[in-house]
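User: Let's play a game. I give you a shape written as tokens, and you guess the letters that built it. Ready? Here's round one.
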């Protein structure tokens, strides 16, 4: 009876022409801060009718290197305070900010996130050295393809940037040593927690993954669209999202969301990693239409 009354109220609410209040909350990336995304905020405010755009002012610059779990648990409380002012929110994460949003969404019971937009974010993790760094640091590419996994997993987990490093050729060490990523990927942990994370992720209506082959930081770039390397590592090409183990096992609900039409990949060529912050043609193609769709859906 309660469900019937709730449904009747919802129908009456929308028939009366009432609209929901929609807000956008944005999380910045690593070694930068919220100020670097002022142009993003300005562009969205000028080109959509969204109620509010909020840039998270937390863990800026060197503080963004703090372990990801600590960032997630702190930022989630700030996000909850902002989200309480809205009926639905759109979550946007640039680079590491998208990884942080994954953690927030999966650990936030009864969240009101409608759409999650990831901009140049290593959603499936990183492996190897960023091309932009390998070009200027001697032997970095060789080191990243041979033995860098050992210090990263044994000493590097005190730095957040290494908490989503995933070496598929040393998977057992990754599961044992990585301080964050296996948890939100539901690759370890008790069944109750894994089911909770999957339930919360599956509550999303839509996931929008924005990336492109010009990304000179995320390796492989297809990680921005949940693709990744196989257990052959650098000896084979990366595979698409649908070919990954995370997708096939539906570990945290990615396949569930995709099968109901809730996953969108927006590929934008010829821009580098930093340009996924606020490059206007990219925003107009991949972000603004998604925001407008949400507004039309609930207004």
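Assistant: Ready! My guess for every position:
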């Amino acid at each position: 009876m309660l469900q019937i009354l709730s449904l009747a109220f919802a129908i009456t609410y929308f028939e009366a022409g009432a609209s929901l209040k929609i807000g956008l909350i944005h999380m910045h990336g690593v070694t930068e801060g919220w100020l670097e995304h002022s142009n993003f905020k300005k562009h969205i405010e000028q080109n959509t009718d969204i109620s509010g755009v909020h840039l998270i002012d937390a863990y800026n610059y060197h503080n963004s290197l703090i372990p990801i779990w600590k960032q997630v648990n702190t930022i989630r409380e700030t996000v909850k305070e902002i989200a309480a002012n809205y009926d639905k929110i759109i979550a946007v994460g640039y680079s590491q900010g998208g990884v942080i949003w994954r953690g927030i969404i999966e650990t936030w019971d009864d969240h009101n996130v409608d759409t999650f937009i990831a901009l140049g974010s290593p959603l499936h993790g990183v492996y190897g050295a960023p091309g932009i760094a390998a070009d200027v640091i001697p032997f970095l590419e060789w080191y990243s393809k041979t033995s860098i996994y050992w210090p990263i997993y044994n000493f590097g987990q005190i730095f957040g940037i290494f908490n989503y490093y995933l070496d598929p050729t040393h998977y057992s060490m990754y599961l044992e040593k990585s301080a964050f990523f296996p948890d939100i990927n539901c690759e370890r942990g008790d069944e109750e927690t894994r089911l909770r994370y999957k339930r919360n992720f599956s509550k999303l209506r839509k996931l929008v993954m924005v990336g492109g082959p010009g990304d000179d930081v995320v390796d492989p770039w297809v990680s921005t669209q949940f693709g990744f390397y196989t257990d052959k590592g650098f000896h084979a090409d990366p595979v698409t999202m649908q070919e990954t183990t995370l997708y096939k096992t539906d570990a945290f609900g990615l396949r569930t969301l995709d099968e109901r039409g809730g996953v969108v990949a927006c590929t934008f060529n010829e821009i580098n990693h930093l340009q996924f912050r606020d490059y206007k043609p990219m925003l107009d193609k991949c972000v603004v239409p998604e925001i407008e769709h949400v507004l039309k859906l609930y207004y």
